Amino acid sequence: MTQDFFFGYGSLVNRATHGYPEAQPATVTGWRRVWVHTGLRPVAYLSAEPAEGCEIEGLVASVPNADWAALDEREAAYDRHLLPGHGVRHPVGRAIAVQIYAVPDRVAAAPSVRHPVLLSYLDVVVQGFLNEFGEAGAARFFATTAGWDAPILNDRAAPRYPRAQRLSDAETRLVDAHLARLGASIRA
Question: Does the pLDDT at position 1 exceed 80?
Answer without folding.
Answer: no
